[in-house]
Design a protein that fits this description.
The chain has 340 residues and is of the alpha+beta class. It is built from ten helices and eleven strands. The chain has two domains: 123 residues, PurM-like, N-terminal domain (60s Ribosomal Protein L30, Chain: A, 2-Layer Sandwich), CATH 3.30.1330; 158 residues, Alpha-Beta Complex (Phosphoribosyl-aminoimidazole Synthetase, Chain A, domain 2).
Length: 340
Amino acid sequence: MVVNKWDGGATIRRMNAEFDLIRRYFSRPVAGTLLAGGDDCALLPPPEQQALAVTCDTLVAGTHFLPDDAPADVGWKTLAASVSDIAAMAARPRWATLALTLPEVRHDWLAAFAEGFYACADAYDVALVGGDTTRGPLAATVTLIGEVPQKRAVRRGGARAGDELWVSGQPGRAALGLQCAQGALELPDEARAQCLAALRRPQPRLALGRLLAVRATAMLDVSDGLLADLGHLLRASRLGAQLRQDALPLAALQQMGVSQAQAMQAVLAGGDDYELLFAAPASLHEEVRQAGKTLSLPLHCIGRCEAGETVRLRDGEGRKMTLGAFGGFEHFPAAPQEST
């Protein structure tokens, strides 16, 4: 006969150890809340005349970061991924919770992770108000709550035929950075450093998102690859698109020493960029470009939306190019269909 016995002393010690981790690494005074941390729930004051923008992201070792990445970089990226979602809604981030799954307790790793997480929180004015720790394969989940005026949130589904398609910054660097980190690509030192920084310390385009609130008709952030994420925007807007190869931001990547084909692959399918992809009326072309100049951030007009469901890519002379190789990242790729 097996008798279930509760070892109260050992259980309490484990609970105290968990709470000590939270107190040591993830507790600091938080302003602007009714209650933050140390209770069953945080209590947050409801914003007036605002909609709440809520997003949740999980980063898993081996999928979103390499197991031997610097923990401070992992901490930064853990929060930055969610801030990028808030940016894509033209919202302002406010409060975050963090659920951290650890295979073991390593205090040096936790201290550095917390340093990177709080560096990102300070940069984007985010308050950590609660969370959880548990044992298991290394992963971090952030729930981030933001706010946006109810009629100014930019969704994916508002694009119209004729709208121009834009992408911010330099997509593709993170993909090249991953290849460098895995030993699959050699780049000059300065280019390698830029690409690794893009991979490990993404810079969410929060200021750009808010500037585009009254200009963009549809917007999302690029995390799975430009072409894959463009598909999400177009499906939500029930449109197709035409892209121009000569308008894609390839030149800066080619100057690093990669071929045009490698640059195309990185820009269209690389992922992990956390740039903003958006549609805006053609009549606002110069206004959008000026918004980028205001922020010293390059904005690239890469094509336009059009009626239908097809995404077409044309070269500088108007000839159709194939897009079959640029599918982007999928967590759960569809299994091949069996022939009958």
